[in-house]
Design brief:
CATH architecture of the largest domain: 3-Layer(aba) Sandwich
Distance between the termini: 41 Å
CATH superfamily of the largest domain: Thiolase/Chalcone synthase
Radius of gyration: 19 Å
Shape: globular
Largest sheet: 9 strands, mixed
Order of helices and strands: EEHHEHEHEHEEEEEHEHHHHEEEH
Strand order of the largest sheet: 5-4-6-7-1-8-13-12-11
Structural class: alpha/beta
Strand content: 25-35%
CATH class of the largest domain: Alpha Beta
Amino acid sequence: MSKSAIIGFGMYLPYERIRTTDIAEYWKQDARAMQSGLGVREKTVPGAGEDSFTMAYEAAKQAIDDADIKASQISAVFVGSESHPYAVKPTSGMVADALNTDPFCHCADLEFACKAGTAGMQIVDSMVRAKQIRYGLAIGSDTAQAAPGDALEYTAAAGAAAVVIGSERAKNALCRIDFTLSFTTDTPDFWRGARDAYPSHAGRFTGEPAYFLHMREATKGILQMADCNTKDIDHVVLHMPNAKFPSRVAKEFGFTSEQMEHGFIVPHIGNTYSACSPLGLMHVLQKAKEGQTILLVSYGSGAGSDAFLMTMLRDGAPLPTDTRETQYISYGEYSKRGHPVAA
């Protein structure tokens, strides 16, 4: 069975930001301590009219353009998010229609905390390898939620990432998906009830036994499956709820700063939840060279991790430059807009 490959990729980030020091100062907390503890300097903030649908559309459109195919050739659209605009109305169907894909298209919304985007990648990968479809879209998009004053407010951000997946034999194939696996348990480290406005979390217990256990096991599993070691990998992308957690995992496995360099983006944008590790991958795909290998490990609270080992089939290339100028907003402006919540 031939393997699948990423044919094109795209991403979208709001141009507005808020500095974590401004959040800390508003709540009369130690700004330096919060910034140092989390390793996040600023986070993206969705603008007026921006939500998980609009961002998913922008990222997907860029991915299709990058793949140099027609939208009508897309036969599957999966959107992973924990902030879908509607409780009952599919984001995936809205995206597919806005892109003008063929109506005979597999569409579904996915939810698994921050790994719903990579779950979509696994589904499309399987459909392509089974020759059920020629091309499919996997998207991670979120306007992350956090209660005012909660620790999550310092990192919960907004963004979207999308990949077009097709056969490794396609003339424009960029990055082959060699191996993928998942590690999942019922570990309630983060949750939001159906009627809750904001999520709850287990504080420091979101690290052990949640994030670290799943990231370790998924990473060990994919390395064993591929019969390779950490030195065989050129680029590493780990889920980034903050800067310290992935840095600790990297240190445990012996990954170097050079391996982590291009995908380690959380200090500048925050945790974009379902788009988090996929956005790290988008940055790597622009820099990686033919023959280089990429390890991607996502994490979703609740809890589970998806791991991928991939190989570049040609040199990556930069995405079109975002010409919008970054704008920083005050906490007062941030508060006036209301804190992003899911439906």
